[in-house]
Amino acid sequence: MCSSDLPLAKIHDGHMRSYQDARAENKNSVWKRPAGRERIRKEIDILIRVLKAAGLWTDDLKKHYSRLPRKLSEIVRALEPKEQDHLLRVMLTQPEWEWVYHYTVLALATCMSTFELRNIRLRDIDWERCIINVPPHASKNSHRNRTIPLEPYAMLSLRYLRDRARRYHAF
Question: How far, in Å, CA of 87 to CA of 85, rounded?
């Protein structure tokens, strides 16, 4: 199925399976490097959407196509310190990404989930003691309160995000 001259109407489940195998092994060095299961699943999902849009996703294809299973070992790993530094430096190159930079600094400094970051309120922040109190309704674990001390650089990011929210009349 790696051939660009294969008409959509001719694609069958065997093509999809051979594509998955070829993509995982990078047969004939068609791509820069082999792809992981998630990348392959996403690529095939795009193809399926195209086939559906063209009215070519048949019951037969649906019946015989087997989706590549997820592997538990493909859990996304945390960024290494050098990777974190690079990510933050790249964010600072674009003015419109400044708020994302500060959001990321806060996330990295506190290990708070996106759910927790979105659900804390101004009253949960002790600005003088540099502490965030994560209440149960906003916590990863709804059975406990979390108290997170903040380093000065995290406080700067938190102040930036508060001031930005005020500028946009978020509160």
Answer: 5
33-85 pLDDT, tens digit each = 888 888 999 999 999 999 999 999 999 888 888 887 776 555 667 888 999 99
Amino acid symbol at 105: V
Closest by Cα among 109, 88, 112 to 100:
88
Closest CA to 149 of 169, 131, 133, 127: 131
Tokens 């149960």, residue? Answer: 136
CA–CA dist 125, 130 (Å, integer): 8
Q: Are 24 and 2 in contact (CB under 8 A)?
A: no
Measured between alpha carbons, how far is 102 from 91 in angstroms, rounded to an integer?
Answer: 9
Instruction: Sort 65 into a burial class: Cβ within 10 Å, 0-12 / 13-18 / 19+.
Output: middle
pLDDT at 170: 84
